[in-house]
């Protein structure tokens, strides 16, 4: 018999509707899975058993009374620990926020609760979402469920890992330069970054405000769409949220790709990309062509400069956003003789190395005399990248590329080389700079048995065609492999 | 070539108290990262407008109505030091 923890959201939701099991039983299955996997995985920083059981029991009472709220009612979901949760510790995997208990819920968390979802707990991340391996967590790394000697990707590595093993049905992550899509690819699940502004960021601890978006990680494209539908939409608390009705992305999954034009990004299909990743990417593209899409190669010449522009823009915004951590209103304080000494000591002790590196980098890029040459120029390059995308979307409906240049790498392999780590996001950063939606769908395994993801990109508010193509990629790949840590063998010594 | 920067000044601006050894390490790392980031200067951008934000939004208004805010005691409960409904910090101005 299938373990309840391995169901998709749509299967679990039907089972709840048919009375085959209760929300409490679903939650128990997920927590049992966590008990088996967490010692090795470390995907969760906090598991809120009490809150989760209260939410599951409330969902069961609603169904018994005939008042089901929607497809997520009673479904256990995990939250990246940079999303504020009222009454539940929110650390951003940083010492500077150890013990911080937010007095409010992020809008996405409130919306999931309104939809009846059961918040299981808070997942591990690179400190303040800065990193591509989840090794930058102040509370220890998360492991890859396919090979515990390897990283799960990052920064939403905890979210990706717990969804992959079944200790949550789906999770929310945040994506500034690939932090949802890259760990999804490395863990063999679906991860999606919505159009900038589609999802409210109220209650997301800010990293780089012109790039950050919250999005879903799930085991199927349909499940990702279900979670996105629950959290998307205008929010008066976020001045950057789109006032329009969200796109009808949930209705396009069965349409197929007949007649669509799909562009393969030439700049992301050559040097620097692992040959096995390239081969699987080409195979997935061939399947789209066989399913009736017209495939063309597209050039985005400015994309070669995206990584450089990103590592000026993101640190600049980070240096400004993280100024709020000063030992005054919340979190850690290290005493000093004056207020300034107190702040400087608090920040030196509270932030980890990568966060300090980026704050310093951003402070430099914004400082007098260097602003135009670095930050100003990066913003102009951002314009050129957006123009390249706009020109491409005049001739194609979506763009595709690998999600990550390699499959999961070993712990420690890139930890001492910031530039090598930054290169992990070379394929995902362009969509953040453009503000466009993108999704990663698992398409196969490499010769080591590690998952490979295909990235699909669409123009702003193009979620409908994005999910349409993603669903076809998923059907064509027939990806059914499960990570080693999710199987019962891990219970044997 | 790695970019040479006055890392002590940058750390002071960022309000991060680092010792000499840490300053040297971060200075070297930043020099290498900036060497890579400097590539953006190779692209011709005459007449190109900078993008600060992906949305064309100009402003977002809400009705000017009195609404409840977060509970003061609950917010202050998270502060490292609070007194009489205020955040308390070390002395900011010299009394001399």
Using a beta-carbon cutoff below 8 angstroms, give the protein chain pair with the largest interface and the number of residues from each chain.
A-B, 71 and 50 residues
Put simply, the count of helices of chain A is: 15
Rg of chain B, Å, rounded: 23 Å
Helix segment tally of chain B: 3
How much of the sequence lies in strands of chain B comes to under 5%
Q: What spatial order of strands do you see in the largest sheet of chain B?
A: 1-2
Q: What is the number of domains of chain A?
A: 1
Spatial order of the strands forming the largest sheet of chain A: 1-3-2-4-6-5-10-11-9-7-8
Largest pleated sheet of chain B: 2 strands, antiparallel
Order of helices and strands of chain B: HHHEE
Task: Compute the number of strand runs of chain B.
Answer: 2
| Structural class by helix and strand composition of chain B | mainly alpha
- Rg of chain A, rounded, reads 21 Å
Give a short overview.
The complex is a heterodimer of chains A (493) and B (96). Chain A has 493 residues and is of the alpha/beta class. Chain A has helices at residues 9-17, 23-41, 49-64, 107-114, 157-165, 181-187, 221-231, 275-290, 306-321, 339-350, 353-366, 372-392, 418-422, 429-434, 463-477; strands at 44-47, 76-80, 118-123, 170-175, 190-193, 213-218, 261-265, 294-298, 398-402, 438-445, 451-457.
Topology:
The complex is a heterodimer of chains A (493) and B (96).
Chain A: H1 9-17, H2 23-41, E1 44-47, H3 49-64, E2 76-80, H4 107-114, E3 118-123, H5 157-165, E4 170-175, H6 181-187, E5 190-193, E6 213-218, H7 221-231, E7 261-265, H8 275-290, E8 294-298, H9 306-321, H10 339-350, H11 353-366, H12 372-392, E9 398-402, H13 418-422, H14 429-434, E10 438-445, E11 451-457, H15 463-477
Parallel strand pairs in A: 2-3, 2-4, 7-8, 7-9
Antiparallel strand pairs in A: 1-3, 4-6, 5-6, 5-10, 9-11, 10-11
Chain B: H1 7-13, H2 20-37, H3 72-76, E1 82-83, E2 86-87
Antiparallel strand pairs in B: 1-2
